[in-house]
Automatic annotation (TrEMBL), chains A, B, C, D:
Keyword NAD on entry: yes
Organism superkingdom: Archaea
Co-factor requirement: Mn(2+); NAD(+)
Signal peptide: none
Keywords for this protein: Carbohydrate metabolism, Glycosidase, Hydrolase, Manganese, Metal-binding, NAD
Any one Gene Ontology molecular-function term assigned to this protein's record: oxidoreductase activity, acting on the CH-OH group of donors, NAD or NADP as acceptor
BP GO annotations: carbohydrate metabolic process
UniProt-listed Gene3D superfamilies: AglA-like glucosidase
Residue span, Glycosyl hydrolase family 4 C-terminal domain: 216-438
Family named by the database record: Belongs to the glycosyl hydrolase 4 family.
Protein name, as recorded: Alpha-galactosidase
Length: 473, 473, 473, 473
């Protein structure tokens, strides 16, 4: 039996975090920020990245930050050259990885456009999400195998998309793994409800999103809610009024979003789905439109603006030129200010160490929390985290049509994972064809799929490309 | 306890058949033909139709035919003016009804085209099938209620489309009903396999479709098979060769089908789906393309010809001018020749009377025959019919993606029936929106739905049109 | 929408608790004790009891206690003569009722003994538990119907046995009810694990039972656990050593328990079941032996002592003579000292009011928390209580044989509730026969059942005794 | 693809039957009798038996019989020394094996009696059935493995008890096996209904059991029916009258059955269960009493006579002294007369060869035919057999309590098979303890189990006896 964390002489739990993707420019900085402010846990963070230099730079940055006077945390950062070393005896493993966008993500976005398939995000479902899943499955098999070998009792916390497929792969490779997938998407919805509370309840003033209790259910980026409360007060009942106030829902002008942030969401699609199905999606509109066939059959991409969202162009996915964020921090060009990140990772670590229970939503294999979806599917629901334990909360059922839509994606995700374990490209193509965005003719679909695979061939080495009938046809 | 049929003094079972839709120009003639040649069962056929004159003409025709020298059957036909009279003490009830096409079917076909939705058949799913379901549900509630009242132990045999929704409605209204739904669609596939047997097996010569055993599973018009045998010889193994021989599958020219029969099918779509999913659909291509989003997203309707099928225009659904077929028979303009109809109705009646067991495929509520579809859904599988008993045969599971596609329609059918019982038009609109052919924008979908409902308002009297938000929006 | 509790001018939530069984000598006193010490919630408690005088005495006692200087609570107690009045506009309903033991419980215990069936408790399953269920079902239907009428949004908290049947009846009568069932039984097991923690973990010292996290699953009094942790440290791994240390398990002498408390449990049966099935029961041995056939097939009742438990004789169930406890408090014969009761009721009320979340185990309809038991069965698992919300935590599966044993009782409970709603005594007899303790011949079982029904006839007025074949045979 | 059977020049299908247990004195003779009269199929029967001499004698007998003038069949019998040889290229495999009763069955019956557990048959469930299962599982693994190796497309027909465990083992070892289990038990019930038909229906005269259609459901020897028809006439409705006519059900005198056949059944237990649960068991009373706890808790074994049945003593299970039946046939001491055996084996072989479909009840893995029992459990229901295909008919659900009783045994059977594959004696002991007949104390149960295992040690070589805690305790 592994004991999660050890104790230093003063009783502070000490632990090792293995960080896969530790050269990142976003997540790694948040983690440094949060650990620098974490007093009651201490330890080491081993940063592993295929780009070792980036990981080394982050290690340098991390150590510099925690040594500052305004930092309370007792943490050491080090870069390692092998995944094995990062995970060896780790108590927690954090995964946040990404293939070089210019060789992958960019094609995921651009190639489908040639076939008339536009995707605002392209990282979860649709042609882009499917390819990303195909690249991720072998990588996550390796992570899971290394966990089994090096730190079988560690908690693995995944942030990488496609969230559901990555998390499911971990469990498929190593069924005893203790892994959860975390995503911020629902936070925004809680903020929306915080506003609703302030608007409709006299006693509600300056409501924090964390005070909003929503009953999350579904799969990542296609989650739904049917309950929302603030201090026990029902907020869900105000949705009909909110819906009316927003109508007509798609009244933005084409072009109106041309200068908007790529991440903007106005919850117009979410309310449209609420109006159709009686349950409110809990993800941003940019994701939602990728899961159903109704919004993206566009003659002109600018039409999407009507719904108050826009496409993220592939150019925005290419790395910026010039020094990286880490480099700018290290050079002093940018100041690394400690702030409240809003991220829950440290809270979750503390809960799993037995310090303070946390309730949050997370991605986890279905063992009854969503009784109307298949057992073993990775679903997103609320869960309670206590000492070395994650217990999902039962979420109840979805409206029939919603469940049916979700189930289509669950089936595709299962197919992709199974195909990935067999290296069976033709089986993956089945999931590709069955994706709601792929309404094009089969021959065209095969051509698009082939284009994508050929262009990203380098990242699909674990697949049996030679035996594929689709590729050779 | 009702005793199915009585016995005349010579031991011949005597029974009453109540025929709902007895004024028909097709089915009624087949029934007359088959009964005229049925020696070992006798009785009365009560013909009911909203068009009483048509039923009376068929009764006249029926009596004239069975009196002929070449007829062996001892049957009497009579037209009745009330459904109650047709069903009172009936042993069997046959249903084959249709609303006046010029007021319904024609709109089901033509209105969606204006919104870019083309349907070759439009009687099962898609916008047309949805409206047809909405008209049929109240009618089938009435039939089931009358059965409960007048002949609760009778066997009800349905031929009307949408088959699944009609049959499900019967059970929803009167759960103890003994009803089955019959459809010919699979017969053609058996003929295809008869050809395959002759082509590939030396010992197979002049194979009859009835000798072909196929394991049917799915829902009406979207059935699938994964086993086919002739006298225990596996035929399914020849499908890969058959597929190769047909490739490229969609190589017909646009326009090539301009003069073809409306009903032609070349099994190109079926083989395309076999190629995608590894199971072979058992329905004709005209139906198949309506269940999935890949084939009907056309700029020009003639493009459908590539797959060797064509659209049935609404003009072909309007009744012919001039005397009806019955009238032509009665006037002697056409001769009524006795023939082998290929229909199974009389065999089925004989089986249920305990004379000779029959195995065939039929539509029946799921009680385990399709363990991976919801209980209570009406599914199409093989069944064994013996004296007063129908027992479905377990069909095993479908490939994951196929099951998921089928399940989408099962959900929509359930929604439609529930909506119909509540008269809830907005709930029906949910199923409409969720149909794979409805990939259009929600506002457009609402406009189309409203158009259809307004145009067919007269046939939707049982729905609560006033309370509908869709209509009023 | 009902708003749970109102707020007084100083912001303290104010509420009404309706107490069904408010004349009790135990539970009512605990409630008075706990409310007297509850500062941040205030309100009224309406005490209803078939024995109005007892309720009135408790009201007097309650008001006197909260007025004392050492009491912080702002609560008013009043006795009411009608159930309607107790529940009218209540925010919470507490149920803790009991039929007069001398006319019911005493027979539940004594009559089966004549047929060789001995039960240590006789309030949950077995012949006694079955009769208790039969009496309770009509009573709980009435409570649920009154809740529907008078306070449909109230939270109903049940303490009455048979817990599972009572709670299931509430939901069967009023499916939208918000009801939970609470039982202490698992607390003792947590105490056992607190000891185990202290014994095996160096850092564990003076561990409180509330710090022990156990994963509860099963049905009330036949719950099981397969995880136990203290601050994230696994305690379950010590069970094999604990088992060995206790062996031989049934080495007490017959007669050894003659002077023991009726409630004593030495966890010998629990460990015996752990040894058999690999999961540890979470209820006391006195209950456990009633759910399985192996321990109570005794020639001499004293043999039960081998397992370190004893029978509670019916004499102990008769009310004491002389003044009641309430009377002794009111007369000053006994002093009512405020103490820490260990009861969770006030914590639960506070959680449901949105003050502070609570995790505890409770009885609730299965919606996935026990995926291998039927949906809708009332099961006992952990749950998280937040503002106006109860969310069960998924508990995972039970070992096959354990699930099968539990399922037998779930089936009987379902049968009893359905029988109770129909007043169908013969159907109830089926559950009686199917109880693992009823291994006697069917004729003997019918005689015992008849004896019990006749003796408790007055309390079975809602059952259709006239139509029963068992009774008349 | 294997082609079932080949064709001789005259078109007669020719095949090889491998007979495991071919030295038997009962089944082998029936097979010789039936094949001698089978004209339209021909071939070879390879007889394998651990007692080679017995197989050789049967081969001699078989060849002698088919050469007689009154025999039409064209069959050759040969004895083989290895299982491999018997199964090599077989088209059908018939299994009917038994361990030497004096070393196994005799103990299965006698040892439990010392602990107060009496079993009339002891070959299916209870202590005796459990031990028999434990011996059979390794043997059936070997058969399945040999089928996989030597004749993977053959149909395997099992007659050995415990039927359910043997058949389940075949599928567990080789999931693609095509195996069915056949048992006569239901035939007797059909005969009972033939009598009922004659008694209650005027037109029914000299009814043959094969004309009776019953809907079989459950597990072997604990099957139930809820429908019975003769030529479509409902017979089930007469059961209540039949029940009344038989009451009191257990009115035989103790001792009354002392001279009765060991196999006598008066359907008193079956009607008692029908009276309790509303469904009629389809097995003989001798089997039924072993599945439930109510009938065998006897002070004096003769009390069982009350129900019109008796125990088969172990002496009746020992082989007779003197020449075997085969030897008596060969010596001419007894004449081998061709007769109508009533066995269905040859009909089933013909159906699977594609000659003539057969409907019968058989044991087969659950794929939906019993939707309320676990998938994969071997259940007994009706099935349709056609060319190279077995399709179970959906049987519908069982009454709740009956399903629960059946499910207990299904769980035990699953446990036993899993334990057998692991060689885990302690896991097998869990099933032993959980058997409804084992109501004795756990220590006594362990002692009995140990006694049985020790006595039959020679036949339990595949189990890991050394590691067992039960044995060593």
């Amino acid at each position: 039996m592994h004991q999660l964390g050890s104790r230093s002489s003063d009783g502070t739990p000490r632990m090792k975090i293995g960080y896969v993707g530790g050269g990142s420019q976003g997540w790694a900085h948040t983690l440094i920020n949060d650990l620098a402010q974490c007093e009651d846990v201490a330890g080491t963070v081993a940063l592993y990245d295929v780009d070792y230099e980036a990981a080394a730079a982050n290690a340098k940055l991390g150590n510099r930050v925690v040594d500052r006077a305004d930092a309370d945390g007792d943490w050491t950062f080090e870069a390692v050259r092998e995944l094995d070393d990062a995970l060896s005896d780790a108590d927690f493993v954090v995964c946040s990885i990404q293939d070089p966008p210019e060789e992958t993500f960019v094609h995921d976005i651009d190639l489908p456009k040639r076939y008339g398939i536009h995707q605002p995000v392209a990282d979860t479902v649709g042609p882009g999400g499917t390819l990303r899943a195909m690249r991720a499955i072998p990588q996550y098999r390796e992570i899971a195998a290394t966990v089994r070998e090096r730190c079988p009792d560690a908690w693995v916390i995944n942030y990488t998309n496609p969230m559901t497929v990555c998390t499911r792969t971990l469990y498929e490779e190593f069924p005893e793994i203790k892994a959860i997938g975390l995503c911020h998407e629902v936070f925004q919805l809680q903020e929306l409800f915080a506003e609703i509370a302030e608007r409709h309840l006299e006693e509600a003033d300056d409501v924090n999103r964390e005070e909003i209790h929503v009953n999350v259910k579904g799969i990542n980026h296609f989650t739904w809610i049917d309950e929302a409360r603030w201090r026990g007060r029902d907020l869900y009942r105000f949705l009909d009024d909110e819906l009316e106030a927003r109508k007509p829902l798609n009244d933005f002008e084409p072009g109106a979003m041309a200068d908007a942030s790529y991440w903007v969401t106005n919850y117009r699609v979410a309310f449209d789905l609420y109006d159709r199905f009686g349950a409110l999606p809990a993800a941003g509109d940019r994701h939602l439109v990728e899961f159903v066939p109704w919004y993206l059959d566009l003659d002109d991409p600018e039409e999407l603006h009507r719904w108050g969202i826009r496409f993220t162009p592939s150019s925005a996915r290419r790395p910026d030129e010039g020094p990286s964020q880490t480099e700018r921090y290290l050079s002093g060009e940018d100041a690394f200010e400690l702030s409240e990140s809003g991220e829950e990772l440290v809270d979750i670590v503390r809960a799993l160490l037995g310090l303070e229970p946390v309730e949050t939503h997370l991605n986890y294999p279905n063992e009854g929390q969503m009784a109307d979806l298949p057992e073993g599917a990775v679903v997103e629901t609320n869960a309670l985290l206590t000492g070395d334990d994650v217990s999902p909360l039962t979420a109840g059922s979805l409206p029939d049509e919603v469940r049916s839509m979700v189930e289509t994606h669950v089936t595709n995700q299962k197919t992709l994972v199974e195909a990935g374990f067999d290296g069976d490209l033709d089986r993956a193509f089945r999931a590709f064809l069955n994706d709601p965005l792929v309404t094009i003719d089969r021959a065209a679909a095969a051509a698009l799929f082939t284009d994508l695979v050929e262009r990203e061939r380098e990242y699909l080495g674990a697949w049996n490309l030679e035996k594929s009938e689709v590729l050779s046809s």
